[in-house]
Amino acid sequence: MKKEQIRLLIKAHKALLSLEERKNSAIKVWEAVERTGAFIMAERVLLYNSLPDELDTHSFIEKWQNKKRLYLPRVNGVTLDILPCDGREMPSGAFCISEPVGTDVERIENIDLVIVPAVAYDRTGSRVGRGKGYYDRLLASTRATKIGVGYDFQVIDDIIETDSHDVPVDIVITENRTIRAVIKNKTNT
């Protein structure tokens, strides 16, 4: 299946979710994230500020913003800046996503854990994003553990076609399972 087909399929699934299903799934996913060694050990965590159709991050950020050093991305041209999540009001930025303000940009090399959004994942950790490549450019420069989060239907059985610049996640967590990425055989890509 091509990436655009995957995006359309997942969008249709998300449209069928009730508010209660969204809320319950988010609670289960974030509880599973909290139990991972990567989260327990991490001091600096880069999250995303969720859009309405994404697994909600707002309660998780609120819960942990005074217990861990949390960061959020801000679009800067074709790259993402990483700024502290300090509880201040965030204006709407690129793509109508609330983004942090300020000049206290953190280097990706200093981040211990990255929670990565995506449209879909496969069992190898490959992901389909929204198609702009922001996270692939950012993740190419980090050795941090990368956890992808989403609804269970966002994990597809097909192997996602990838390009050389695509960066997979290490772990995928849904409301029903935790998947440690299986290394993809390079000859099968």
Describe this structure in words.
This protein has 189 residues and is an alpha/beta fold. It is 25% helix and 19% strand. It contains five helices and nine strands; from the N terminus they run αααβαβββββαβββ. The strands form two sheets. The chain has a seven-stranded mixed beta sheet. A two-stranded antiparallel sheet has the order 5-6. A hairpin with a 4-residue loop joins strand 8 and strand 9. The radius of gyration is 16 Å and the shape is globular. The two termini are 14 Å apart. The model has no long low-confidence stretch (mean pLDDT 91).
Bulk shape: globular
Q: Can you count the beta strands?
A: 9
Structural class: alpha/beta
Report the radius of gyration as a whole number of Å: 16 Å
Residue-averaged pLDDT, rounded?
91
The helicity comes to 25-40%
Strand line-up across the major sheet:
3-2-1-4-7-8-9
Number of distinct helices: 5
The secondary-structure element order is HHHEHEEEEEHEEE
Strand content: 15-25%
Specify the biggest β-sheet.
7 strands, mixed
Give the termini distance in whole angstroms: 14 Å
Low-confidence stretches: none
